[in-house]
Structures are given as C-alpha cells and as structure tokens.
Amino acid sequence: MLCIFLMILSAVGMIYGLKETKKNKPIGKPITAVSIAFALLFALLHTCSQGGTDIKDIIAKEMQYTKASTIILGQQLAKIAPGSKALVIIKPKTNYNKDRENALLDGLKEGLETGDISIAALVALQVPKEAKRQMPEGMYEVPPIEYWFTAKIFNEVIEKNKDCDLIISLVGLPPSQKELSQIKLWSMKEGERPKLAIINTPVYDLMPLFTEKLISVAVSYNPNAVYDEEQPPKEVRAAFDKRYILITDDNVADVSAKFSGMFNPEKGNTSEKKKKKTK
Predict the structure, then answer these.
(1) How far is the C-alpha of 28 from the C-alpha of 20, rounded, in Å?
(2) Rounded-to-integer distance, Cα 197 and Cα 217, Å
(3) 74-78, 203-207, 245-249: lowest mean pLDDT where?
(4) Per-residue pLDDT tens for 106-130?
(5) What mean pLDDT is predicted for residues 17-40?
(6) Is the entire prediction scored with pTM above 0.90?
(7) What are phi and psi of 97, to 5 degrees?
(8) How far apart are CA 70 and CA 103, in angstroms?
C-alpha cells in the first residue's frame, strides 16, 4: 500500500510539473523528471514486493546508490580542493529519512578522505516555526523544503562558518528563483568565496552559476537512469553512472550538449551577457 501511495504522489508531481512546463515556468521540467524517476522506482518496489522480494533488500540496494552519489562527489572535491575545511549542510533527520541522510553523509566522508578534507562544521537545518504552522497538524514530520528553505537561512549558516573554504550542501539550494538570487555567496570576491558543491537540487536554471564558477560541483539525476532488480555494480563509479551525473564548472557545457533539456536554454553564460552590455 505504501508504494502505491508514493506512486500516486509521484504522479501528482508529474502532473504539476507538466502544468508548470506548459506555463513556460522553468521549474516544471526538473519536477517532472524527478517525479518520473521516483514513480519508476516505487513501481519497481511494488512489483518486487508483490513477487515476494524482500523490501528491505530493495531499500538496501537504493542506499548503495545513494551512498555512491556522495562518494563520487567527495572524491571530486578531494581533487579540486584538497586540504580544505568543509561546512556540510544537511536536512533535519526524521524517522523517514534518517537512513538516506546517513548514507549521504557516510558516502561523503568516504570520498573526502581521499583528499584530506576535514568537516569543520556539520549543520542540520532547523525548520522555522512559522513553516511548521503552515502545515496541517500531523501531515509532515518536516514540511517540504520549498516551504521553508530560504536564502536567509542559507546565508546565516555560511555567515556563522566563515572559516570554512568549502561548502557542501546535501540539501541543495533554495528552490525558488527569488530566494536563489538573494544568496550572498554569489557577490563575494573571487579568492574570498568558498567553493560550493551541491546535491539534491534541480540544476535546470543553474547554468550561469556553473559558467561563472560560483558552483564548483553538483550531482544530479541521470535522465537515462536505470531502475531494475539487479544488484548495484560493485565498482562505485559504475553504480554512480547508472543513476547520476557529475556536473562541474569545467564540464557543464558538455553535459548540456549531451542531455538536451537538462538546462534552461534561455540562461547562458552570464559573462558573455556582461561583455555584450559593455560593447
């Protein structure tokens, strides 16, 4: 029953995403893509559970993929920012998400070790009281992130950890364009600005942040992701590639060319726009 309920929620997400796409709202495509991915996953879980496959085994497989996502993220950061002091931002843990959040954090630590990167600060975001009051009582242990994750919260966390030269957000970035534009990190001088790595956030509108080198690394869902009953590949990179894409400020143009629709075509290199304005 749980899988069926989650499939229905994913279907609602797809419908919402398609409606937003028809309104030419950029958030529509990533919402649709993620909803489809989760719908396929929950359908697989339901099919396997009906056939007698142990649901715990299926969840364990998914946690292996989840851990692989941050192992590769950590290894990439070890290459480009060895010896850094990292601020790691995580979601509030609940009974429903603690296994996934633990897998993300464990994978990240494993990946960072290869570059002697220390986690100087680990910050679990706190949901504002007003956000909790907006939700029907008992509906959510933690309200959906779009209801409460703001630029103000993100800015405050960074401000309190100025000594960190690397920010790793396992929460991603504030989801709305308005909030995204108010992040103070973007206006910091190069050399003073920490490197930023993200996971769990739609990248559709983030092309300018990559080309301006404001985001160093991101992990995103692979549009060609494979969801099956097979055991995850033993090799971490192979498991990663089956589900995710590693996007960097160096390969973003290649990723955009390979996966049509991953980035908003109306948002290009802001450096080029600045040059045109100065002519």
Answers:
(1) 5
(2) 5
(3) 203-207
(4) 999 999 999 999 999 999 998 887 7
(5) 51
(6) no
(7) -115, 0
(8) 8
Task: Please give the single-letter amino acid code of residue 149.
Answer: F
Amino acid identity at 275: K
Secondary structure of the chain in HEC code, one letter for each residue? CHHHHHHHHHHHHHHHHHHHHHCCCCCHHHHHHHHHHHHHHHHHHHHHHHCCCCHHHHHHHHHHHHHHHHHHHHHHHHHHCCCCEEEEEECCCCCCCHHHHHHHHHHHHHHHHHHCCEEEEEEECCCCHHHHHHCCCCCCCCCCHHHCCCHHHHHHHHHCCCCCCEEEECCCCCCCHHHHHCCHHHHCCCCCCCEEEEECCCCCCCHHHHHCCCCCEEEEECCCCCCCCCCCCCCHHHHHHHHEEEEECCCHHHHHHHCCCCCCCCCCCHHHHHHHHHC
For the chain, the first-to-last Cα distance in angstroms comes to: 62
Q: How far apart are CA 188 and CA 191, in angstroms?
A: 9
